[in-house]
Structure formats: structure tokens, C-alpha cells
Amino acid sequence: MLVNRLLTGARARAPLQTSLLETWRLRGRTASSYSASSEPSKVRALIYGNHGDPAKVIQLKNLELTAVGGSDVHVRMLAAPVNPADINMIQGNYGLLPKLPAVGGNEGVGQVVAVGSSVSGLKPGDWVILASAGLGTWRTEAVFSEKALIQVPKDVPLQSAATLSVNPCTAYRMLMDFEQLQPGDSVIQNASNSGVGQAVIQIASALRLKTINVVRDRPDIRKLMDKLKDLGADYVLTEEELRMPETKTIFKDLPLPRLALNCVGGKSSTELLRHLAPGGTMVTYGGMAKQPVIASVSLLIFKDVKLRGFWLSQWKNNHSLDEFKEMILTLCNLIHQGQLTAPTCSEVALQDYQKALEASMKPFVSSKQILTM
Ligand SMILES: NC(=O)c1ccc[n+]([C@@H]2O[C@H](COP(=O)([O-])OP(=O)(O)OC[C@H]3O[C@@H](n4cnc5c(N)ncnc54)[C@H](OP(=O)(O)O)[C@@H]3O)[C@@H](O)[C@H]2O)c1
């Protein structure tokens, strides 16, 4: 089984109890629960009080550091990316919206500064990532509940740790959970240069799956194609090339894909479907073109293709924290083995957040903006 090749660690099952907002609200300081002495410190945070254009509603403000209860952990944030979901959340267009005012950002890596008296699994100096979305990572420091945190090895590169908990997990689940793929099978995807797309290429390559990767055309398309091939992509095509009849020659050497991963919607997803094997599955996990998925009636009737969706937050609701930790461990092993790297990133200091927000909303930037604290 493919899964056995990558999975390590225990399979214990326990309910995921992390509540979305429980850790970011201000609470009363309980000095006795704090294992290291600390004066109240000012936290710099990117906060929004209303939904709207991120460039207009996000402001850099001072926050009082949340008090540290017995089961809490004081974390100094090191780096946090700007993902499309963060932007959608600020715009008010996402499946999960924190109560306002809220701190932006859903993932990132931090270092433990101090722990409450009943915290047993973490100690000062450890690196941690967030187990849940909606906790607000675009800030210099925070106090989180221990159960909202997952420890990651400190020898994982900073950019990999900061971008580990969303995109690689999404790529991994989509490759594992929808079709029983075997080495040599093929997978087709669009938006292949996205954070998720780059993780799909690398994890699929580690699983000895072949990938057909579709990207939008651009002036420096050869450079992008070479970059994705260096990551392990077998074929890289533009949306236009995918529509050409010659593309079918690829399938002289490869089996038709049983899995298609759609991040775009509209015509792009219709093209993915056209190349899917009979009975295959297209998983939609993003809608970057903001257009509906259109599936031809004949494909549904004569090829019986399946249309599915994936949302990592929903997966986490239905699985235990231990299962999530097990996946993180598996992905860290791939990082250690040199089989999974961070997407191309640009580090931007927290105070230069406007630059990062602007770049993350522009087309063809092809570089994940990472706020550094
Ligand atoms: N369902 C889930 O659980 C889940 C988890 C993670 C991510 N996501 C979603 O997956 C998507 C990608 O996230 P990410 O962090 O990987 O993104 P990212 O690294 O910021 O990359 C965005 C990608 O979208 C492409 N794109 C933007 N507008 C497009 C359009 N109109 N038509 C075609 N492609 C377009 C970009 O292509 P260019 O380089 O050509 O501009 C780029 O490849 C987002 O929609 C995100 O919300 C979903």
C-alpha cells in the first residue's frame, strides 16, 4: 500500500478538541502558572475589525499579551505565510470566519517562550505549528492552548515549517484519500505552481506517481516549467497546450489519470475532466478562477467520472489530533529525506505587510509571501 511507504508513528484516535477562538481572546494573567518570569509585553499584530479589501482593513496594532493559564503556551511567532484562504477570510468569503476583531493568518511556525504549569508536552525553545485555523498567526507573540499546537523538529527549514500545516497536508490527503493509487499511476492537476501544486508534485514523486501539471501561460513559462520539473513533475503544460489534440500522445506512455486535482474551476476544470480515466475522480479544493465547475453530461454518463470536494478544516473536524500529528510527522520525514521542500517564498518583515498582501493578490507572482517576525 502506498500509505505504508510514507506513514510512520502511532494510530491512536482521540477527539480533536481545539476550539477555534479559545486561545486568542484576552484573559486574566495567572503568574503562578507561568514557568518563566515575564513582564507583560506588547505584541505587534495584523488585525482587522471589518471584512473587506485586505489592503484597507488590515492594520498593524499593539495588543496586550494574552495571559498564560495552566494549559497554555507562550509562543514567539517566527514566520507565517499569506495564503489565499487568509485573504478570503479577511474579505469575508470563507467557510470559517473568526469573530471580529481578529488577527490575520491561519498558519505559521513559532518558538515556545514559556509554558503553563500543567503543560507536559512542550518546553521553552521548542518549535510549534498550529493545529487549527482561525487562531491568528500574523503577530509577534501569542498565547495558545497546548492542544492547539503541534511540535515540529527544529531542523526543518523555517519556510517549510511555516507552510507545513495547510498546503502539504491538503496535497497529501488528496493523493491518499480519493483513489487507491499505485506506483506508475498518473495524477493530473491545474494551478500546479501553487503551494498545494508544488507539494502535490513532490509527494506524488515520493510515491512514484506520475504527474501531469497544468499552469497558466506567462512570458517566462520555460523557467517555470524547468522549476516544476526540478521538483519532480513528469509533464508540465499550459492550459492552452492541454486543449491541443497532440497532448493525447502523453497517454501513449502513461495510464490515463484516475485522479484530477482542481484548484481553478471554469474551463480549466472541464479540461482536466476530459483527460480523466473512466470512473476516475476529480477533487476540487480551490476556485481561483471564481467560476463554476462544468462537467459534460457525456463524461458523467459514459465515463462515470466522480466529482468530489476537499477541505482540510473539514478533514480535521472528522479526524483526531493524533492523526493530524501523524501526517505532520510523515511530511517532516519527507522534508528530512529531501523529498519535500517549501514552495518558492519571499520573506517580508511583519511591518512591511502591505507589500506582502499586495504581492499575494497579484497574478503570476509565483512566490508565497512569508511574514517574518
Ligand atoms: N480545500 C482546502 O483544504 C485547501 C487547502 C489549501 C489551499 N486551498 C486552496 O488552494 C488554492 C491554492 O492555495 P495555495 O496556497 O497553494 O496558493 P498560492 O501558492 O498562493 O498559489 C495560487 C495559485 O493560483 C493560481 N491562480 C490564481 N488565479 C488564477 C486564475 N484566475 N486561474 C488559474 N489559476 C489561478 C496561481 O497561478 P499563477 O502563478 O499563474 O498566478 C497560483 O498557482 C486556494 O484557492 C486555496 O484557498 C484549499
From TrEMBL:
Keywords: Fatty acid biosynthesis, Fatty acid metabolism, Lipid biosynthesis, Lipid metabolism, Mitochondrion, NADP, Oxidoreductase, Transit peptide. The keyword Lipid biosynthesis applies. It comes from the Eukaryota. Transmembrane segments: none annotated. It is found in: Mitochondrion. SMART domains: PKS_ER. Its EC number is 1.3.1.104. InterPro entries: ADH-like_C, ADH-like_N, ER, GroES-like_sf, Mito_Enoyl-ACP_Reductase, NAD(P)-bd_dom_sf. GO terms for biological process: fatty acid biosynthetic process. GO terms for cellular component: mitochondrion. It catalyses: (2E)-octenoyl-[ACP] + NADPH + H(+) = octanoyl-[ACP] + NADP(+); a 2,3-saturated acyl-[ACP] + NADP(+) = a (2E)-enoyl-[ACP] + NADPH + H(+); (2E)-decenoyl-[ACP] + NADPH + H(+) = decanoyl-[ACP] + NADP(+); (2E)-dodecenoyl-[ACP] + NADPH + H(+) = dodecanoyl-[ACP] + NADP(+). It is an enzyme of class 1 (oxidoreductase). The keyword Glycoprotein does not apply. GO terms for molecular function: enoyl-[acyl-carrier-protein] reductase (NADPH) activity. Belongs to the zinc-containing alcohol dehydrogenase family. Quinone oxidoreductase subfamily. Catalyzes the NADPH-dependent reduction of trans-2-enoyl thioesters in mitochondrial fatty acid synthesis (fatty acid synthesis type II). Fatty acid chain elongation in mitochondria uses acyl carrier protein (ACP) as an acyl group carrier, but the enzyme accepts both ACP and CoA thioesters as substrates in vitro. Displays a preference for medium-chain over short- and long-chain substrates. May provide the octanoyl chain used for lipoic acid biosynthesis, regulating protein lipoylation and mitochondrial respiratory activity particularly in Purkinje cells. This is Enoyl-[acyl-carrier-protein] reductase, mitochondrial. It comes from Cricetulus griseus.
